[in-house]
Design a protein that fits this description.
By secondary structure, the chain is an alpha/beta fold. It is built from 9 helices and 11 strands.
């Protein structure tokens, strides 16, 4: 098993917390009156709540850029780089980026802000809420090398939310061929939408289908199911469960983060 997760995050079964950025310039629901100052203030508040709550890593994403593009506008990358650059001195844990839903843009952003990893839809073809969703993993990996991002880890989301693989292939086949052809640093397994619970059985199928790639539970973790999910997965990406009242649109609730991470830390003692 590739052990880079433990090396980078310093713990077994790391929890990567999402810092969701408010709508950005160019997004349909951008708050022009509040401007970038509001985006930065909200990101700073959530960042500190997550870190104070004890998460192992942060991933910045333009989560409220709905509806998403599969090729983002340059202004989105610039705005995200501005926010992360402003917060950089306040970040105390390893961090990554997710420029939805564009792996090339995510890599460009990662290089600009010294992020350690990206998460994206990097391979496959899907029918999605955002139209026909194609990828070009060969081009993406070549771009990664060309821009000096050799050390940026790539987390492949192989069950994207709001989309279905176009070919009639089961998840075990997808996991095996993705590992063999693309050498992902990790595979992310999701539920239907952000906040939807990932099926533990699906996690197990993926885990048993690959030989060397870590598996991350990508959506729907909460304090009631996290030990079950981590009994299979090598880590988790968490967001909605950390929000006030567990509602996607809300700000991060530091107390909810602490309660969740206390359960995770107790679970790690059994490993």
């Amino acid at each position: 098993m590739n052990n880079w997760l433990e090396e980078l995050f310093g713990v077994k079964k790391p929890i990567i917390a999402m810092c969701h950025l408010q709508p950005l310039p160019g997004d349909p629901y951008y708050d022009k009156q509040g401007g970038m100052a509001k985006v930065l203030d909200c990101a700073r508040r959530d960042l500190h709540a997550l870190q104070n709550g004890g998460v192992d890593a942060i991933m910045f994403s333009n989560e409220f850029s709905l509806p998403y593009l599969t090729k983002v506008e340059p202004v989105t990358i610039a705005a995200m780089a501005h926010v992360i650059g402003e917060l950089k001195k306040e970040i105390t844990v390893p961090y990554g980026v997710n420029c939805l839903w564009d792996p090339i843009a995510s890599l460009d952003l990662a290089v600009a802000v010294d992020a350690k990893f990206i998460r994206e839809i990097i391979s496959g073809v899907y029918a999605s809420d955002f139209g026909l969703w194609n990828t070009n993993v060969g081009k993406t990996v070549r771009h990664k090398m060309a821009i000096g991002a050799q050390d940026v880890k790539m987390l492949f989301n192989i069950v994207p939310e709001a989309a279905k693989y176009l070919a009639d292939r089961n998840i075990a086949e997808i996991a095996k061929s993705t590992e063999f052809n693309n050498r992902p640093d990790a595979l992310c397994v999701s539920g239907l939408t952000a906040g939807s619970e990932t099926d533990t059985q699906v996690l197990s199928v993926v885990k048993n289908s690959v030989k060397r790639t870590p598996i991350l539970c990508n959506t729907g973790c909460n304090k009631d199911n996290i030990t079950r999910q981590l009994s299979v997965a090598d880590g988790a990406v968490c967001a909605t469960t950390f929000k006030i009242d567990g509602i996607f649109e809300n700000a991060v609730d530091e107390q909810r983060v602490k309660e969740f991470m206390d359960i995770v830390k107790e679970f790690r003692k059994t490993l």
